[in-house]
Structure formats: C-alpha cells, structure tokens
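Kindly inspect this one:
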Amino acid sequence: MQNTIQTRQSFFIHFKIISMKQITTLLALIAFFCMPFTESFAQSTISGTVTDDNGLPLIGASVLVKGTSTGTVTDVDGNYSLTVDKLPVILEFTYTGYLGKVMEVTSETANVSLATGINIDAIVVTGTRGKPRTILESPVPIDNINAADLLRSGQNSLDQMINYKVPSYNSTNQTISDATAHFDPSELRNMGPSRTLVLVNGKRKNQSALVYVNDTPGKGEVGVDMKSIPTAAIERVEVLRDGAAAQYGSDAVAGVINIVLKERTTGEVTLGGGVTTEGDGWTYEAAVNKGFAVGDGFLNLTGSFYHQDYTDRAGEPGGDGLFGVIFGDDDILNGTHPWIKENPDLGMTVGQPEYDKYSFSANFGLPYGDGNGKFYAFGAYTKRDGKSFALYRAPYWITDDAGLLTPPGQPYQGFQPTFETAIDDITFSIGNKYNFNGWNTDISLTAGSNSVDYTIGNTINVALLPNSPTNFNAGAYTFGNILGNIDISRTIDNFTISLGTEARRENFKVEAGQEESYVDGGAQSFPGLQPSNALDENRTNIGVYGGVDWDATESFLIGGAVRYENYSDFGSNFSWKLNARQLFGNNKGAVRASVSTGFRAPSLHQI
C-alpha cells in the first residue's frame, strides 16, 4: 500500500580473528551485545550535509568515526546526524564513485563536499564472459563495492546496502502489503525486479517464491530474495548497469548483480545494533566469519543472526478516507465518528515488519594440477520468521468478534490482523574449472529454492462466528530450480573468445491453506489459498551463447555477443549485443557505447 522512509542510527563492532580460541572468547560477548540497548552514551551530536562538487545532495553517503565502525548515512536530502562521545573527532565521509574525505570536526556542524572519483584498477569478472578486466577497461559500466563499503552504508540487509551505494538500484521497505512487506521489491534502472539477474560467485541465484500482487513497486513481478544472502559472507558486489540479455539470459535486461563470497582464511566477528530516530525499530545482529586453509585451497564459513523490531509511522489522518466513502458516512470520512475521536491513528501500525533471520554459508575452493584446475563448491541457507500488520478492522467495519479477540470484560474496539511468514532460502553450487591448452573451462551444477508459508494471526472468519479460529494456516508458495552450465573461453592474440550453454529446470508449487481460512469470504485481511489455487508446475529452458572481444589497440576495444534461448512454455528468442570502449587521458578515463536487443520471458510464477 505504501512505503516508509525512516532514519536509523547504527553501530557495528568489528573484530579480526585468526584462531578458534579467539572465536570462543568472542562468542561469549555476543550474548551481551545482541541484547536491545536502552540507554544512549553519546555526549555530542554532529549534523550536516554531504554534497557533490556541484552542490547536489548525496543520498546514502557514509559518515564514519575514523578507526571505529560507528557511523550513519545521509538521508534523501544529503543530511546526516551522528552522536559521538566527545569533540573533537575525526570523521570519514565516503560515497561510491566519489573520492572520500577525512576531516577533524570540532563543532556540532560539519558540511562536506565530495569530488567525483573511482578506483579504476579494481578487477571485476562481471560483464564479460572472457578474461577479467579492471573497472576502467571493462566494456560496460560496472560498480564494484567491497565489504568495507557495504558495512559503512550503515544498513543491515544486502538490498539496502546496495540501495545506499548504487544510485541506479532501488529497494524500499513496504508496509500493509501482505508478504511483499517481508521481501521488499528491488530493481536496477527502474525496469522491474524480474529484469535484474542476481549471481552468486557468477552462478544464477534462484528467484523468490513470491509474486508481488499488492500495489507496490514491481507489482505482478518476481524478484530474488536479497535478504536471504548473508552479508558477512560477502567479499564484494559487482553491479553491471547495462542490458546483458545476450550474455546472461532474459532476466538480465536491466543488468546483473554478482555477489562474490569471501575466500580469505582469516576470521572476523561483527556485532551490531541500531534504532530509528523515533526510538523504535531496534535491530541487533551477530556474525562470525572464519576461513581455513585446506591444502592449497580454502574453506570459508559464515554464521549470523539478525533481529529487527517493527516500526510505527501511522500518524493521525483525522478521518477514514477509505471506509467513509465506501459506507457513505460523513462522520467516518471527516473523523467525527466517536471511535475515530478516541483513536485518531485509526488503530493502525504502519511500518517495517519485525523478523528474526538465521543464516549459514560456506565457500570452498581447492586448486589442483599445478594450478591448471580448481574444484569449488559454495552454498547458503537462510531462515527468516517475520510478522507485519494488515489494515485495522475498526468496529464500524467489522462490527463484532464474538469475544474471540476482545479481552474479557472489555468493550469491542476492533482488531488489527497480523501477517506472519516463515521463509526458507537455500542455494548450492558445485563445479570444476580447468585450463586445457589455453582453453579455460568451467562446468557447474547449481540448485536453489525459496519457500514462504503464511499464517494469518489475530483475526477471524466472520462467517464462522462464534466458532472461528483466530489464527489460520493460509497456505504456502515454493519455487526451485536446478541448472547446469558449461562455459569456455580463450584469448588468442588480441581476441578473447567465449561460448557456453545453460540448461535449467524450474518448479513452482502452491499449497492451499486450511479450509477455515478461505470458506465463506475467508479470514479477515488475507483469505487463504484455496484448493483451486493449488498447483505444481515445471518448465525447462536451454540457452546457448557466444561472444568475442577484440583489443584493436591498447586503448580501443570492440566486442559482441549473441544468445539463443528456448523455453518449454514460452518459445524461443535470439538476442545480440555490440559494445565498444575507448581509453583516454593516459588510460585514466574511458568512453563506452553499446547497442543490444533483449527480451524477458515471463517467470514460471507469472504463467
């Protein structure tokens, strides 16, 4: 129904660890730091504005106390507010694509202007199926965000971290929108959630089980559950801001997000917490990341827990513009109805949902054959239990609950149903890379699934009064896929050739809820899924691609790619792309151009 914007103060405590003894010691601290905090120890509050060199506000710029993980981010007007123990203090100001600034702050006001700049020498693997290139040398525009930048965003979930770092990426908290409030649709270049391909270590991440059916961004579409990816396991995120359907498939029309997992053999413990400036929405988290040397390879493990309280931004509208019109009642419309006078907020809770999230991930790699080969495997599992709120059922709307929800001896005042979700997400990939006489091969198998079970709480089925349940199993959705990839590339003189294939099988399942949740109008707020909604459908997809890049000179590159795809339920398509890049200014700048075709096959959920 609507999205909420709120400013949050956050802190993170980051430990480097190298031994299991250190892990044991630090885990003993987690029980303390993961408890909600009730006092503020800040002595001074610094506020100001962060702008670019043209005076325009930078949204989501990081403001950090140097040498610590205490910081915040700027709001939509570039403003920030940060509490510190004392003055003076040294602050670091950073923003993706801009040169950072470190300054000593001696007063409670500090305005900063950041100049344009970028780390052009970072190596990226997204955007080309051939050899890796630097950000500057890449033929397509790519943002490279490392783990430190993600942490400095001050956000707690991956979708919001990217949202505050990449201007072309959008993700907003949703409220009063059933299960959508627990997923938060996200998109690149304002083209819809289902047009952004998400990869983990270069392998396709499964979509979520949910179709966004409410009046929210991405209505009618399907996206990836970005909250399911444990942030403590991430080394960096590469964001390709260009159409890439000819290289990666139909869901890469808007671009590609590649999440690269940590391979390091050291360890870290992160403890964090935060609260909104309104004093609600408490968050606290703990994460442990530890790597181990395995022969010449590595095994990196991550475990994390995150809790988020709900927020409330209901306000006091002064009247019910919805049911005042529906009932044709001026007292309800204008707020002169007795119940509205006593409850000017209409009884509503409007804000982000509360939830607990448990995550575990592993990343393994083992070279062999004198470095010519590498066996790898990685995977992650996330469980998320959440609760959001539906529209309040005022007594002029639902006139009685037969005493099922009203405390004994109390007058009936209506009720606000809850929408509770149990979300499970799992992904796993296994593969092998080998260099055969200059030909780089990568053969892999990937499986993933996402499921969401619905429970509707604190509500009734009016038709079943006085014997209605007050909690309902409203059904479930499950989506899964399994895919195999073969990717081959080789550089011959100034030409880099790439080709490969992907075969994918998808399954989408809908399970009906309990009978009381849907009969005779169903449970208030969300009538359960009916047997007529239940289904178990499959489809297959086969794609074949080829590409070539030609480094015509040391500064000029031209390339192209083609892809053929066939869907068992949608038909086939042929896409192509041409791109070029020219370095200039002693290889300190670049001009890029591309032209391409692409298409988006409907998700299995949508068919």
Notes: Residues 326 and 333 are 9 Å apart (CA to CA).
